[in-house]
Specification:
By secondary structure, this protein is mainly α. The protein is 80% helix and 0% strand. The protein has helices at residues 3-33, 36-57, 69-92, 96-104, 106-116, 124-135.
């Protein structure tokens, strides 16, 4: 990887981490002001606009191959309404720390699922790395 590409990746990952860290607090605050449905709709519209902008400024084709549209629509439903709905309605009934903890557990869940499905082999160092990342 070239140094410029590495720096861009580092900036992108740092930005994503900062956004993720603030999400729980921002959603919690928004839920004090408006209904969960309004928060969810606003998030989906804003993320759609941002996604179209990213597609517009990124070189290459804007649309994926037609053969992938069905999968993308399914992922869109899982990541959009289902994921965000569970987040928003969960935060309405809980505190931001609970959501952040569940988010921090995601790598463990993904790794255990991959091991259970035979896509990964259990590795002590990888498991230790996940635990260290979780502990922070």
């Amino acid at each position: 990887m070239r140094p410029a590409s590495s720096a861009r990746v580092t900036v992108a990952l740092t930005l994503q981490t900062a956004i993720s860290a603030g999400t729980y607090l921002a959603v919690e605050r928004a839920l004090h002001e408006v209904s969960p449905g309004t928060v969810m709709l606003t998030r989906m519209v804003l993320s759609s606009v941002l996604f179209v902008f990213v597609l517009w400024v990124t070189p290459g084709p804007m649309l994926p191959p037609r053969s992938t549209w069905e999968r993308i629509a399914l992922l869109g439903l899982l990541c959009g309404p289902l994921n965000q709905g569970l987040l928003i309605f969960g935060l309405e009934r809980s505190v931001p720390a609970h959501g952040a903890l569940l988010y921090a557990l995601t790598p463990i869940g993904v790794y255990l699922l991959a091991v259970a499905r035979g896509r990964e082999r259990w590795q002590r160092m990888r498991s230790a790395g996940i635990v260290v990342a979780l502990v922070g």
